[in-house]
Amino acid sequence: MTNVAIVYYSATGNIHKMAVAAAEAAEKAGAEVRLRRVAEITEDPLAPNYKEWTEANVEHVATSRDVQVATIDDLDWADAVVWGTPGRYGLLAGPLKHFIDQTFELHARRGLMNKAMSAFTSTGTPHGGQESTILSLSNVFYHWGAVIVPPGVTDDILLTPSNGNPYGVSATSGLQAIPGHLAQNVTDDNLAAVGYQTVRTLQVAEALKKGLKTG
User: SUPFAM superfamilies of this UniProt entry (predicted)?
Assistant: First the structure.
């Protein structure tokens, strides 16, 4: 059985929703799955003068506490890791970067080498840095010697307008009219696409395990 870790940071729930879909797709494909969230670095409000954002963040954190917090052991255990992060100025979010910075010991013993890696994201606008956010995570994977698995344009679901780019499935989120809430604008196509991306990553991980064992 192939081990798949879905490791994500979500501020307001969009990435969480996609991560759950990724985990469900991997389980359906027969993988052993760990769904793991990356915790906030601080409990201080992320945007104290932005009421809608802050209230949505507090609400999401409260409702996702049942998801276990990611540890470095989860990365060591996994054959494939699918990462989720909102875009922050075209980069991965700070809490996820903080978690990645703790991987030095595992990386130093080549514990992340040859693992299959893929990533998905969500931003506030269609051109809010989706591609560069995915590419910022790819820079990390290069250093680890991991094998990057992009969704590419390898299935019709990836051709739908809401799915972003061939680097990784991308959703668009934004404010809605109800005070204190952010719109959960993740579409059914996004969920189907991130499921496809996860299974593709799982399949590459399986092939790597088999090939490295026989090679």
Answer: Flavoproteins
Give the bridge partners for 7, in sequence order: 36, 83
pLDDT single digits (tens) 36-46: 999 888 766 66
**Which of these, 198, 205, 187, 201, lies nearest to 115 by C-alpha position?**
205
As given in the structure block, the two tokens for residue 153 are: 């344009």
Torsion angle of the four alpha carbons 8, 110, 168, 215, in this order, in degrees rounded to the nearest 10: -130
DSSP letter for each residue of 84-114: EEEEETTEE-HHHHHHHGGGHHHHHTTTTTT
Number of other CB atoms surrounding residue 55 within 10 Å: 16
The model's pTM: 0.91
Please report which helix (H) or strand (E) contains residue 190, including its range: helix 188-214
